Amino acid sequence: MVMWGKIATFGILKSRTGNMDIPRKITNICCIGAGYVGGPTMAVIAQQCPEIKVTVVDINRQRIAAWNDSDLNKLPVYEPGLAEVVAAARGRNLFFSTDVDQAIRDAQMIFMAVNTPTKSFGVGKGMAADLKYVELCARQIASVASDDKIVVEKSTLPVRTAEAIRTILDHASPSSPHDEEFTSPDNPHPVNKQRRIPKFTVLSNPEFLAEGTAIADLYKSDRVLIGGDEDEDGQKAIQALVDIYAQWIPREKILTTRVWSSELSKLTANAFLAQRISSINALSALCEKTGADVDEVAKAIGMDSRIGPKFLKASVGFGGSCFQKDILNLVYLCRYYNLPEAADYWEQVVKINDYQKHRFARKIIDTLFHTVSEKKITLLGWAFKKDTNDTRESAAIYVALDLLADQAEIHVYDPRVSREQIRTDLQQACEREGLVPIPDTDKRVIVHTDPYEACAEAHAIAILTEWDEFAAYNWGQIYHAMRKPAYLFDGRNILDPVKLRQTGFQIHTIGKA
Ligand code: UDX
Ligand code: UDX
């Protein structure tokens, strides 16, 4: 029988200055934050390590209820393969709960996977990460923990956050020992002992999974990165986490570093990936003017093994919860350390991305005789990429706002995104951008569950997410049901322009004349 957690660390009385009590083998972990990162990551750990009890907690009751729903189609995160992993482990050694305190108390290792949005107020507004949730978690851990804990940063955080977390943990935990009752398996009668002061060590273990391929990425990571302190406790904690991942990741792919290197690697890995997309997107504008084909250029560039073929797909612009936020974080850090040239360099990656989204919307408006007022424009795709229901920072939101500002009537179809989500995204984006709320939303933003219905009578169709199903549609049927000229704007270059031109479409793609 597996004995969960507690027993391994039972009843040891030790001061804050001594070495930590880190069990040789972790048997109980919890994760605070049941989102796109926490949910899939913990599900895979539970599936791969049946001897570890994994509890994922969240303050959002609805989200936890959805994770516990017997209908696996109702999981709050859509990821190919996730439902199968949850089905295998849930109720066995994977649990979803709202009892955050209990999970913290029981766990030997606590992952923090709460969201860290860009600050929307005060110092660092629009740039710095809002660490309020991370701080709240640290305070909660400190206030309820009664034994030593390894705390693992999973959220993407600015450099030196681990230090801040450690400061909170060390200072917010009970400062003086007090009496508490202990029992042990050998002695079930409570004995009164002085409560020990728990000690904490903080690891950085950034997540590199990409949404839509999260499960495959977790199974077969390019690398797992674990940053920790160089002292004995730090090294023991690193080893404990290495041992978990080593159950399915080859040891040579598990990289251990100091904490700050790990934190900075996550920010900059995302900045480098986003930089490649902005580079190819900047080129796409030049290709459209000169007659070069951006896909051909990308292929030619990518065949240079020093460059490589990935992340060179020109698009309507990158989205997602990470790229923009992490680059803005990096920019903020550079400015904070008085490195304005380095800050401007990275900021340009975000500016090109904004330019690309506006450029796409502008092209639609200009092509449709300089106005889309009262015209039906159908947007195919709302998620920030295919195979996810996540819409954070999706290019679709910004393209829609530009078209709505020119009084278009927007019709949207996305295979995984709900009507409520689309409305909320637009409303929140208006607030963020300081725009007036969209009048007559019910009439101006219509969300469909049938793509053919969404496209009927449209003046133009714009593809904003690269869902595979879009390429498989009967485009002849769609053409016949549209207003003429039938305009098609492929923001992801997933359709065959030659064939569609033969069908009769006026097709515009990214980076092709
Ligand atoms: C993650 C990372 O943590 C973030 O830093 C990274 O840049 C993007 O991915 P993600 O899992 O995508 O975030 O966020 P989200 O889906 O919003 O999930 C976070 C969860 O934490 C939410 O369900 C929220 O309810 C929960 N939460 C937040 C808590 O349980 N407690 C809190 O105090 C705050
Ligand atoms: C990213 C990182 O890839 C991942 O390692 C990190 O942990 C989190 O951030 P994610 O945002 O989930 O993952 O997806 P990603 O595949 O990186 O795509 C981000 C955006 O870039 C999407 O909008 C996508 O459509 C766009 N993109 C990607 C392009 O426009 N062109 C490309 O060539 C690749």
Which features characterize this protein?
6-stranded parallel β-sheet; disordered N terminus; 513 residues; alpha/beta
Quickly describe the structure.
The protein has 513 residues and is of the alpha/beta class. Helices cover 42% and strands 14% of the residues.
Instruction: Assign the structural class, choosing from mainly alpha, mainly beta, alpha/beta, alpha+beta, or little secondary structure.
Output: alpha/beta
List the uncertain runs: 1-17, 176-180
Indicate the proportion of strand residues.
5-15%
Rg, nearest Å: 25 Å
Terminal Cα separation, in Å? Answer: 67 Å
What's the average pLDDT? 91
The oligomerization state is: single chain
Count of helical stretches: 19
Strand order of the largest sheet: 3-2-1-4-5-8
Percentage of helical residues?
40-55%
Main sheet properties: 6 strands, parallel
